[in-house]
Amino acid sequence: MTSADLVALLPLIFVGGAAVLVMIAVAVRRCHFVAAALAVAGLAAGLVSLRCACTMEPCEVTPLLVIDRFAQFYMGLVFSAAIAVALLSYGYLAAHDCRREEYYILVLLATLGSAVLVAATHFAAFVLGLEVLSVSLYGLVAYVPARTKSVEAGLKYLVLAGTSSAFLLFGMALHYGATGRMDFDLAGWHQPWRWEGAVLLSLVGVVMMIVGIGFKLGVVPFHLWTPDVYEGAPAPVTAFVATVSKGAVLALLLRLFAQVNVQEGTPLAVIFAVIAIASMGAGNLLALLQNNVKRMLAYSSISHLGYLLVAFLAGGDRGVTAATFYLVAYFVTTLGAFGVITLLSTADREADRLEDYRGLARRRPVLAGVFTAMLLSLAGMPLTAGFVGKFLILSSGVGATLWTLVLVMAGASVVGLFYYLRVVMEMYKQPESRAERAERAPSGPAAEAAGYFPPATSDPRAATSLSLAGGIVLMALVLTLVWLGVYPGPLLGIIDSVAAAIGG
Fold first, then answer.
1. Is 340 a residue whose pLDDT tops 70?
2. Cα–Cα distance between 357 and 337 in angstroms, integer?
3. Pick from 13, 301, 347, 503: most CB atoms within 10 A?
4. How far apart are CA 484 and CA 271, in angstroms?
């Protein structure tokens, strides 16, 4: 290790050091505010230190990691999202009777694992980063043990994540057996179908790795855990899983296949095209059937990962640029959407039912406006970051003549508009009166069996308990959303250099 290596690793050192510091502070004296402040400070220090690390780029730190513009950009994206999640979590955890301080240790460790993933150039670093991320998420998903759904979601995620890791490791072993290499070199995989010797063994190994990555991304047909985990996990944790976790895995996917020419008829093109079409279709169609907002956003995330795979298949600098910009837009909108859910949730339950949002524009006009902006961006409406992102993906697909994928994406986006507008219309409806709610609701054991509870936002105490930190985060996200939708040029210039860093 040289001094240049240490400077390049400063972002990882700050985040890992912050986790240790919070652990020591909790051992000395429990204080929710101190734990949250140390976590945010550590993430902010990691974010600022990227400016120092960029002076050493590209820097290969052992054969395991490379700190280049691509890694630094995605680290910045991951750290920024983690800061937003930590700030949103502060008010959320304050309303719950649980040990709050350890939560921030898990967030820091999960962020550290994500940062390792985006810089990995070796399968050993891939496994190390992925397992640090996954093990931390097991605890985060089940962090509110008083809720049965939270524990159930944690167990489901544990079992399925363990299964996906088994696929990954077995696939890596087969690929190593065929090539004798553990670095991200899939030489020969861009060739047409070949069914002999080591090529076939490598093919099976890489397909098994794609299965494992598909589980982490939650794309079809590996998506079954997504709606249950999204619904059961605490709202800020769901935001973390939907953004930081999936974003880090997608960044690794872009780097892993950066040097592979995606051509029509190759194994890679066929496999990912089938996954993309299935994800766009099934994600949007299943979202249409949901009355639970978190489950709707879960199925929506499946479709958005399908859109990102279109840019991935387009390949080249244009494809990497489109995927990266769309991912930034997806981070902003998803954090904003789950941020609204977080602020409206109470200690009793999450504000995840569609009826919780009926009349929200009258009760909380600012939150209703924020949620509307986020949903319209997810739908790809003009003047939002989502519109620019979808335009870039469609443009990259057209440039690569992926006509089938482009048509499916266009049709799926139209379907998605329906269920997003359904929530928007609910927010601007006349609120139910108490008499109407009582008439509609079952009572006694029937209410418990039907899972009915009063809307979370009907609690008068909750109406005045909005988190200041959460409110600041939402305002920053809205401003970013509009800025990227109206003036995306500066960010696109940065992303172009990021795409060139991995040889698009």
1. yes
2. 13
3. 301
4. 32
CA dihedral 35, 36, 42, 43 (to 10 degrees): 150
CB 104 within 8 A of CB 358: no
Residue whose entry in the numeric block shows the structure tokens 């329906």: 418
Using the CB atoms, write b or e for 292-324: b if 16+ within 10 Å.
bbbbbbbbbbbbbbbbbbbbbbbbbbbbbbbbb
Q: Which residues pair with 66 in a beta bridge?
A: 60
What is the distance between the alpha carbons of residues 311 and 326, in angstroms, rounded to a whole number? 9
Residue 468 makes CB contacts below 8 A (sequence gap 6+) with 91
CA–CA separation, 233 vs 236, rounded Å? 8
Tokens of 300: 């929506």
A 10 A CB-CB count for 121 gives 22
Tracing tokens 């956003």 back to the chain, one arrives at 297
Taking the CA of residue 381 as centre, how many other CA atoms within 13 Å lie in the half-sphere pointing to its CB?
A: 16
β pairing state of 59-61 and 65-67: antiparallel
pLDDT tens-digit series, residues 36-84:
999 999 999 999 999 887 777 778 888 888 888 999 999 999 999 999 9
Which 8-state DSSP code applies to residue 429? Answer: S
CA distance 466 to 88: 10
Residue 457's pLDDT is what?
42
Q: What is the pLDDT of residue 197?
A: 62
| CA angle (482 as vertex; 52, 233 as ends), nearest 5 | 75
Contact 69, 494 (CB under 8 A): no
pTM of the model: 0.90
Tokens representing 346? 């109470």
Cα–Cα separations (whole angstroms), residue 272 to 131, 393, 402: 24, 15, 12
Secondary structure (DSSP) of 92-103: HHHTS-S--HHH
The sign one gets for the Cα dihedral 96, 97, 101, 104 is: negative
| Residue 122 exposure: Cα atoms within 13 Å on the Cβ side | 14
d(Cα 141, Cα 167) in Å, to the nearest integer?
22
**Encoded tokens for 316:** 């080249």
Q: Shortest CA distance to 304 belongs to which of 252, 247, 255?
A: 247
What are 353's strand-pairing partners? 292
Does an H or E element contain 65, and which?
strand 65-67
